[in-house]
Design a protein that fits this description.
This protein is α/β, with parallel strands linked by helices. The protein is built from eight helices and ten strands. Helix 2 packs across helix 3 and helix 2 packs parallel to helix 4. The protein starts with 9 loop residues before the first strand and ends in a 6-residue tail after the last helix.
Length: 240
């Protein structure tokens, strides 16, 4: 499995997303380019999940523009997303992946080989016939990654995929994320875990109150944050 040519950069121009009476994103501008994983961090309610859902086309901008490779409103054919608590279909592990392959219009004669490849990538060889809903939380998250990769995305969005996992399961998922990135797939991941961000990130997007407060390489962000909000957040204090 190799990522097809990417239609990045992904660009947000002065984007606002209104949810009820709240601006979940507030005049946000950001460019996401090919390369190492981009980690999106920030306090609870800062807009991390909304940003990923907006990029996937799951929520529309109330104002502003989102474009892919300079094209506004491009269909999400080459994007995929994995949520913190993915829903497992009431069928086997292999059948969950087969369903994703069918949805991606992959020819039936290629399904068995692709299923085997994806199971190997996420470390679930030998689990093909097991009911998906009987997997552990970490195994379900790895299966969710396999389903997302069935689409052969150029960009994979991950919404806190390790938030409820133990250290061993977290490491397994992080190893898969590194393998995915090594194949040229752009990973954009929200996390609340600063240690995870340090381990995985090529660059950091720090959100505060629905806006981009700071963007930088991971090394620069963690060693010399420029903004008061970022320094406060990294110190573990409440960001107001």
């Amino acid at each position: 499995m190799h990522a097809p040519p990417s239609d990045l950069p992904l660009q947000f121009d002065d984007v606002t997303v209104v949810t009820g009476a709240v601006n979940a994103l507030d005049r946000l501008s950001l460019v996401i380019r090919p390369g190492a994983p981009t980690l999106v961090i920030g306090p609870n309610g800062s807009g991390k999940t909304t940003l990923l859902r907006l990029a996937m086309g799951l929520v529309p901008p109330s104002r502003g523009k989102v474009s892919w490779g300079g094209v506004a409103g491009a269909a999400p054919n080459r994007r995929a997303i994995v949520f913190q608590r993915p829903v497992m279909l009431r069928r086997s592990v292999a059948a969950n992946i087969r369903y994703a392959l069918q949805a991606a219009d992959v020819p039936n004669e290629k399904h068995d080989a692709r299923i085997a490849e994806l199971l190997e990538l996420v470390g679930l060889e030998g689990f093909a016939d097991r009911p998906a809903r009987r997997l552990s939380g970490g195994e379900q998250q790895r299966l969710a990654l396999a389903r997302a990769l069935a689409r052969e995305p150029t960009v994979l969005f991950l919404d806190e995929p390790t938030a409820s996992l133990d250290p061993a399961a977290t490491k397994a998922v992080e190893d898969i994320i590194r393998a995915i990135a090594a194949r040229g797939i752009k990973v954009v991941m929200a996390t609340h875990d600063l240690g995870e961000a340090k381990r995985l990130a090529g660059d950091i997007v720090f959100l505060h109150r629905g806006r981009v407060a700071e963007t930088a390489s991971a090394d620069a962000f963690f060693h010399s944050p420029r903004t008061h909000e970022a320094r406060t957040f990294l110190a573990g204090d409440l960001v107001l």
